[in-house]
Amino acid sequence: MAPRKTPEKSNISRDELLGYYREMLLIRRFEEKAGQLYGMGLIGGFCHLYIGQEAVVVGLEATAKDGDKRITSYRDHGHMLACGMDPKGVMAELTGREGGYSKGKGGSMHMFSKEKHFYGGHGIVGAQVPLGAGLAFADKYMGNDNVTFAYFGDGAANQGQVYETYNMAELWNLPVVFVIENNQYAMGTSMKRSTKSPSLWERGAAYGIKGEAVDGMDVLAVKAAGEKAVAVCRAGQGPYILEMMTYRYRGHSMSDPAKYRTREEVQKMRDEKDAIEHVRDLLVQGGHATEDDLKAIDKDIKAIVNEAAEFSKESPEPALSELWTDIYA
Amino acid sequence: MATEILMPALSPTMEEGTLAKWLVKEGDSVKSGQILAEIETDKATMEFEAVDEGVMGKILIAEGTQGVKVNTPIALLVQDGETAEAPAKAPESAPKAAPEAEKAPAAAPPAAPKPAAVAVRAADPDYPAGTPTKSMTVREALREAMAEEMRANPLVFLMGEEVGEYQGAYKISQGLLDEFGPKRVIDTPITEHGFTGVAVGAAMAGLNPIVEFMTFNFSMQAIDHIINSAAKTLYMSGGQMGCPIVFRGPNGAAARVGAQHSQDYAAWYAQIPGLKVVMPYSAADAKGLLKTAIRDPNPVIFLENEILYGKSFDVPVMDDFTIPFGKARIWREGTDVTIVSFGIGMTYALEAADKLAAEGISAEVIDLRTLRPIDYDTVLASVQKTNRCVTVEEGWPVGSIGNHISATIMQRAFDYLDAPVINCTGKDVPMPYAANLEKLALLTTVEVVDAVKSVCYR
Prior knowledge:
Chain A is α/β, with parallel strands linked by helices. Chain A has helices at about 15-40, 55-60, 75-80, 85-95, 130-140, 160-170, 190-195, 220-235, 265-275, 275-285, 290-315; strands at about 70, 120, 150-155, 175-180, 185, 190, 210-215, 240-245. Chain B is an alpha/beta fold. Chain B has 14 helices and 22 strands.
């Protein structure tokens, strides 16, 4: 992974940095809480945590405007929080309760928000890629300048449908940013063991799609690359590929024995590349915030997450009649 | 010696065609590979090339002649100095597998009549009595349905392989590109998994796509998006986000296209909650049900049939003719046995009913039309009257629609049954290519007749 890079003369405002700090911290604390609730048996099934990758969604959401769409895989909690969905509704969906975004019928992997233009939450690896291109197709058809962010991982990048989609997206100039969240492991299979391609974004060149690799642990680098990609798409010259070099600290899901990498590797990433620590450093060293200021933010975030957890426990299970609803519109 | 030039078979299901245009005239010398004529098949207008060199001696079938059977001599090719008057010998290599064609007259009549409209046996419940009708093929009915809905709703668009410039692999979309333009009639690369996903995504975002599969066999490349992405999203989103989309195309066996291109998906898709599944037989149903499908806010599987595309039926002339889902049609009333079928199965069911009538057995024939939802009530009411039932479908026997109908009758009308229900299906084998084996693999009218006699203890 490339060393962390920060614009030399940072003219990022205090408010902007504090915003990133808050949003990334919210995702991390939320996910830590979800891990706890899973351990307590309150969350069932699969639960894929986003810890470590927070800079990707937070940096890209900073480039989005109202009307832009996003779609991702089953590792979706961070994306939902970053686009402004209510932590209570997300957590209550994890616990399978009536107050969840899908009334408890979707679960961790399947949540949607029409209001926030969040289109899921998809459990079949790679399926969200053509779906995302389809969202962009709809915007192009309607003649607006909205952009879709279609997120997928390094694992999904080996699915055939991704390349079928690249071909059509470029052929039809769809306004979609393909965001490859390369966290280096497809479940337990490292990049090295699954492909000889030196990089994933370069595969787009075969279809004529522009793209680049980005330090996905640096929210400012993510935002800068995102602005470029979004501008290309809004100008009708999409699609664009961003390969976000990132890292997940936790296992693939809660039941991951993590035999495929060392503790030292994970610890090194945490120590040297952590996205939240990076912004924290910028805030403190830049004189934008004191330790006390940051502690106050930590406290706020903790309160929001605790409130979400309480809501997710107190919200009742869905009524039994819900079994038979929402099958047909 | 003069060589006969025969009407060629230019598609798997072509039995006859129109000799649209001669590009040579009598006395012209002809080179091998030269285009002799344009021939219009059920699918497309094709150029027909000369195989042998020679002189065009005599044109036997005038241009503009319709209904020219395959293997009918259409011209005589002579060598220099020969005359065309020499009596032509029957072609030595006429394929034995085309007995129909051999019986065709040597010279076709000036204009063969269009296939006769299938008579409607019972009063059609789908439109008011006295509504004027016109005879129309299933193909034309499907095209009209799409065109009408596209005119009415700018969010409706058609996407698929060869739907635009090629005018449709089976001519269903003929003319739509001209009327609606490339924004709404979209040719895709050959990439079913990908374009189905794109269309489903577009539907989630509020458009109303019609996805044409060149045949439903290719929908297996895309079945993950049909089931996991389209059918389940409304439920998984707690009702927030649906997927108003139609997947349509020919389904089931055509003719002589082998195992991978001959398969009925009715029972496959009918199993999936969240999908609606339609399989029309007549042109009126094709039109009315496709219009309903395009307006439906849910994903709809619309199973057509290549062999039925060219068949004509009466279609009501109405401003806006639709047929609701979940409503079977009684094609023929009867008292002795209920025959339940759908799609091309209706061909066998109705033929069998005719034959049975001649033997004094009165069969009630029900066309399910939609397989999800299924109109159980119409079937049960009929069985309660006739006390006997035979189901007819082209698909495989295991886990068939007939199995499901039988189970439902057993649970809800057991005491009315005088005989076990028999399911007539295709044979439990991949479709063979050889003509004789293919015939054996497919359902036949005789099998339906025999099944009915069996449940009637005759």
